[in-house]
Amino acid sequence: MFVLDTSLEFIEAAESDVVEVYQSTSAVAITTEGLKEQPCDACICAVREDDAVNVYVALLLKSSRKARIFIPSRQEEPADYQLRLDGALDYAKSLGFAMERVNLNYSVALREVVLRGIRVLRPVSAARLAAKQQAAAETAAAQQAEAERAEAGRLKADRERRAAEDAAWIKAEQERLETEEEARIKAEQERLRAEEETRVKAEQERLAAEEAARIRFEEERRGAIAEAETRAEEAVRAAKIAARERLDAERIAAEKAAFFERLHEKAVEERRTAEELIAALAEAERCAAENAAELRDLADTTGADRVAADKAVAEMAEEERLAAEKAAAAQKAGEAATAERMAAEELLRTKTEEEKIAVAKAAEEKAAAEKTAANRIAGEEVAALIAEAEKSNGEKYAEAEKAVKAAAAERLAAEELLRYKEEELKAAAESAEAGRAAIERMIREKVAAETAATEKAKAAERAL
User: Fold this and answer.
1) Cys-Cys crosslink for 450: which of 22, 161, 163, 202, Cβ 3.0 to 4.6 Å?
2) pLDDT tens digits, residue range 291-335?
3) What is the pLDDT of residues 398-423, one digit of tens each?
4) Three-state SS across the chain?
């Protein structure tokens, strides 16, 4: 939104301060504030003033050759120059003008010629230029004075801050030194006390450990002897049981072998009998077949003999049937005998495997007996070692007495060292007190220097 500025009749600007210029392509008849409708040209100028770029909209009246200058409303003036320029173009467009940009990309001389052709633009007057320079000088002086006052305030605040920081540092340093010294003295006392407590506790633990070791060693020795005796007795019993089981296994194996031998012989005999019976039946079948053939031949010669022959043939057929049944029974008997023989052989193999397992078990039991005997020997060796350990235990007790005497001497030395450390701590406390006095003296000197600097700064401010 642009409003009329009645105080402006033209736009004063130096050539170098003109940023952009737009002119209307043709005149438009409009009604301005306080004037009747008349043709006008429009011009938009962007001028750099101080640190900002201001945008003006000028209406050039054709009849009176005067200009009406419009400026952005202060309440709606945007901060961005491009937004202000776009607002001016929109305002001119709303009045009916078509604007085009004036080319200013020339040399300085040609640029001045182009700008002089724009009626609303005028060079800056000498009075305004002087006023502008004076305002700039006053502004610079005010800024310089403000900067000096700000610098003086900053220096004063900085001095006060440094003085406060130094005082706080000195106080913190004193407190730190005092705290460190107290902590060191306390730590030294605690260390000496802890060393003494540790030494006494270690001595008590050593004596208790030696007593516990002696008791444990005695219990282990008795337990080892009892265990060795028990293992020896178990080994003897196991050896007797193994020998008895081995003899029983050998006897059972011999009986099983004789039984299977008899069973095998019986199966062989039954098979041989079945084979002879099958051969006899085959021979009987062959003889019966020959008799039947002879009877058939006789039956062909005579009728009477044929009846007799038929009867004989029937009898022979019955004999053949009975012979065949006997042969089948004999064959079944042979097959049953073969099956029994095979079962007997399988049983014999199974028993043989069991005998092998029994022999292996007997060997393992024998090895166990030998191991038991070795354990018994080892138990005897352990008993010998225990006796040797008991002998060395007496030597350890003598060494323990010597260690007790040495510990008493160390305790006396530690007490002497404690007295020496207390004297050293006392000397360190006196040294710390002297250091604290020196720091306080340095603080007083620094505070006096800071006070003098502050007075000097105040005097400089009053002089300004």
Assistant:
1) 163
2) 656 656 655 655 555 566 567 657 766 776 776 677 676 567 667
3) 776 786 677 677 778 777 877 887 78
4) CEEECCCCCCEECCHHHEEEEEEECCCEEECCCCCCCEEEEEEEEEEEECCEEEEEEEEEECCCCCEEEEEECCCCCCCCHHHHHHHHHHHHHHCCCCEEECCCCCCHHHHHHHHHCCCCEECCCHHHHHHHHHHHHHHHHHHHHHHHHHHHHHHHHHHHHHHHHHHHHHHHHHHHHHHHHHHHHHHHHHHHHHHHHHHHHHHHHHHHHHHHHHHHHHHHHHHHHHHHHHHHHHHHHHHHHHHHHHHHHHHHHHHHHHHHHHHHHHHHHHHHHHHHHHHHHHHHHHHHHHHHHHHHHHHHHCHHHHHHHHHHHHHHHHHHHHHHHHHHHHHHHHHHHHHHHHHHHHHHHHHHHHHHHHHHHHHHHHHHHHHHHHHHHHHHHHHHHHHHHHHHHHHHHHHHHHHHHHHHHHHHHHHHHHHHHHHHHHHHHHHHHHHHHHHHHHHHHHHHHHHHHHHHHHHHHHHC
